[in-house]
Amino acid sequence: MIRSHWRAGPQEAWTGQVFVSVTDFTSSRVLDLPGIALAGYGLRRGWATLDGAVGMWLWTKPARRRSGSVSVWTSAAALSGFVRWPPHVRIMKKYRTRGRIAAHNWHADEFDQGLVWRAALARLNQA
C-alpha cells in the first residue's frame, strides 16, 4: 500500500470526539487509475479550506486497482458538507460508474493519528 503524507485541515488542533471516514474505490479498469489519483490529489489541495476537516490521507493499492482516503472530521455533518462540495460532486459523477465504492465510518472518542490509521488499515485489509 502506498499512502500520502497527512494533510491537515483547518481543524487539525481539534480535541474531543471525531468522525472518521474510510473510502475504498476499486476501479474496473487499470487505465482509470491515473485520473482517479489526480482527482484525489486535486481535492487534497483544497483540504485546508474545508469546514470541519481535521485532516486526511490518500492511499492506493495499484496492483489491486484500489484507492481511497482516510479522512477525519469534527462531525458527520462536516463530512456531509464535503460530500456536497462541488469539486467532489464532479469527481463522483465522473468515476461513480467506473468501479465499486465502499465506505466505513465511525466515531472516535479522540483523535490519535496512529490509532485512526491502524483502524482504517484493518478495515481496508479485510476487503
Give me the secondary-structure topology.
Blueprint: E1 2-3, E2 7-8, E3 18-27, H1 33-45, E4 53-61, E5 66-73, H2 76-83, H3 86-95, E6 99-108, H4 113-126
The CATH class of the domain at 33-100 is identified as Alpha Beta
CATH topology of the domain at 33-100: Alpha-Beta Plaits
Q: Mind telling me which CATH architecture of the domain at 33-100 this is?
A: 2-Layer Sandwich
Helix residue percentage: 25-40%
Q: Flag low-confidence runs.
A: none
Rounded to the nearest angstrom, the distance between the terminal CA atoms is 13 Å
Order of helices and strands, N to C? EEEHEEHHEH
Shape, principal axes of CA atoms: globular
Evaluate the radius of gyration: 14 Å
Organism: Kibdelosporangium phytohabitans
Protein name: DUF3291 domain-containing protein
Verbal overview:
The protein is of the alpha+beta class and 127 residues long. Helix content is 35%, strand content 32%. It has a domain at 33-100: Alpha-Beta Plaits (2-Layer Sandwich). It has helices at residues 33-45, 76-83, 86-95, 113-126, and strands at residues 2-3, 7-8, 18-27, 53-61, 66-73, 99-108. Strands 1, 2, 3, 4, 5 and 6 form a 6-stranded antiparallel β-sheet that branches. The longest helix has 14 residues, at 113-126. It is globular, with a radius of gyration of 14 Å. It starts with a strand and ends with a helix. The mean pLDDT is 94.
